[in-house]
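tmp note - Iron-sulfur cluster biosynthesis transcriptional regulator SufR
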Amino acid sequence: MVQDTAKTATLSKTGQGSTKQDILRHILKQGEATAQELADVLEISPQATRRHLKELGTDGLVYHEAVQNGMGRPQYVYYLTQQGRDQLPHDYGEFAVSFLHTLAETAGEEQVQAVLEKQWQRKADDYRQRIGEGTLQERVEKLAELRQAEGYMAEYSPLEGSTPQFLLFENNCAIASVAESYPSVCGHELEMFAAILPDCKVERTHWLYQGEHRCGYLIQLIENE
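out:
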C-alpha cells in the first residue's frame, strides 16, 4: 500500500509523471489506444510514447494486445489494468463501503437502500440549485462541469436533430468501490439525472459495469405537444 501511494505521488509531481497520467487518462476515455494515437494526441514522439508505455506496463498499469491489420506487422493496442484505473481520480471509498456493510448488518438491506436513495435525492437538489435555469445545453454543460470536479472525467457532446439532445459521458467512476458492492447506486444516478433535468428524457447508453469502458447517458428535451 505504501509503495502504491509513493508511485502515485511520483507520477503526479514530475513532468514525466504528468505525461504518464495523460496517457492513462486518454486510454481511459477511449477504452484503448495505440502508441501512434497517443503520440499524436499528446504531441510527443512515438519513441517517447513507447518508453512511457513500457514503464507503465512494467508498473502493471497498462497491458497490450497484438492486432493484425492486413499483411504488415501486428499493431499493439494498449488498455488499462484495474491498477491503472486506480491511478486516476476516484473516491477511496473503503470507509463508505464499510459503513454500508455495517448498516446492512445492524439495520438490514432495506435501510441501506433507503439511505442510498435519500443521498441521491439530496444530491439532485444540490445540483438543481447549482445548475439553475437556462437552455438545455447550458444546463448539461454545467452538469458536466460539476461531475468533472467530482472526479468523473465527464464530458458532453450535442447530437443532430430537430429536438435538442446531448450525450453525457463519464469516463471514470468516482464511487467505484461503492458501486461494486451496491450496484443499485448506478440506478439512482440515472434517477438523479432525470430529477435534475425534469423536462428531459434521460436514458443510459453505456455502462462501465456491463463491460464498457465508460458510462453514458442520452439526454433529450421533451417537447410540449
